[in-house]
Write the structure tokens for this entry.
Amino acid sequence: MDALELELTVPLRSFALELTLAAGAETVALVGPSGAGKTTLLRTVAGLVRPVRGRVVCSGQVWFDGASGVDLRPEERSAGFVFQEYALFPHLSVERNVAFGGRQDGLLDRLGIAHLAKARPADLSGGERQRVALARALARAPKVLLLDEPMAALDPHTRGTVRAELHQLLRELELPTLLVTHDFEDACSLADRVGVLVDGRLRQLGTPDELLAAPADAFVASFAGGNVLRGHVRGLTPDRALTEVTLEDGTLVYSTDQGTGEVALVVYPWAVSVGREAPPDSALNHVHGEIASLVTVGNRVRARVGPLTAELTAASVRRLGLQVGERVVASFKATATRLL
Amino acid sequence: MSLKTSAIAHLAVLLVGTPAAYVLARRRFPGRGLVLTLIELPLVLPPAVAGIALLAAFGRYQLLGGTLSALGITVGFTQLAVILAVAFVESPFYLRGAVAAFETVDGTLLDAARTLGAAPARVFFRIALPLAAGGLGAASALALARGLGEFGATIIFAGSLQGVTQTLPLAIYAQFEQDFDLALAIGALFVVLGAALLLFLKLVPGWTRSSSSSPFRFAPSRSS
């Protein structure tokens, strides 16, 4: 039996959140554009939003059942909620914030915030606030953990560390955890399974690897960071091994995937290489264009070439002396493409 | 006399008005606009009209007065009338400020408290009340000042019986033809009281910032 079972219909402004989800003692990340209903989902589990129908069952206890009229109040559900921006009580010290939720034995120590016990939330850094919010949510000894954009309020350079710490904590807790984020990378690094929520519907739910390897549609692919190129299938190569796709700009590319008619061709940035001329290697596909931008992200550089984003190492960019505005060739193998 | 009736009226307004303002600030229900308008009505009414209205409602042979006098309670021209008149006139000042104060409290904090296992009453006392304390204090001080100076409704509804229903403002009115110096002295008292209240208002942000977990000095319903 799964620890958390959801089956919900919640009307939102222009669509309804309709979703069925079961989670064991694992972290399920929900990603998707803003307004997709992610936060509403968490609020519904916590009892802050009432669904029109459906069921919420946690560890065998029915929290909501539209059919039988069961609807536990938020304070009766044992859900640990970490809100976006953390919602710490500004007039209470760290210690009292955590104690508001229940017993705090060792929680401050465990989360490394014991030295901040007397501090006010306003005096804490983003990472510290996140830990206080986690400690407060855990003080209730919750049966399910709900995290709403836990990384959004952090500055980029603390994100990496905080993410690693959070990942470690979630693994130790072994609680069913729903984590909402708009960042696919956060989702993949923190969660066992990732669900893509668009307009209130779950487009795809799977492990990060499954989502990357076989995105259900163009949206999931682009959300996962893939290049999505529109085109239509011209036919097969004479040996019938590859599909020929004409892109919108007329470029002909090849894919090992099958498809017909209008298609979306997906290729991930890390599968795209950039050079001054087409390399004499196994890559079949070449897109010529100017470098529109070079953005450094950590130790990687994301280069925009025509419709493609390529992920390169900073060392390669230096070695090739790539500059914005230069004409280059972006190449990728036919095996690195997916047709959707 | 004036201080006692003002204090009782003020306490009544705080006791009833604070939870009412919280509900009005937090809940959206049909008729909310109407309720808010009714609350503000005494603001735009001339105090004399308020006095007439109260007299019409509570007068011995009137709507509520009849029932009350059947129970042996007379309202008109007693201290109870003064209290009612003062409460009636000052309540919108407090309620408006209190609703605004509760509206500034981030609703997410209240939601967070609920998910942490706090029932609505605990959320109110531990989170909403302390966080709205600054605004509530300011509203309370304004309302108190308005209540102390109440004249029109009181003289019509409660009369100006010396030692019974004669409040300070009524005393000024009564004295200024006979003993101008005494009227002046009472007036001076008001200036001092008003200045003290204004000074208090200026200090309010200071003590809410530095306050501990229970900064709400007016807390009418706290047992501690």
Chain A is about 25% helix and 35% strand.
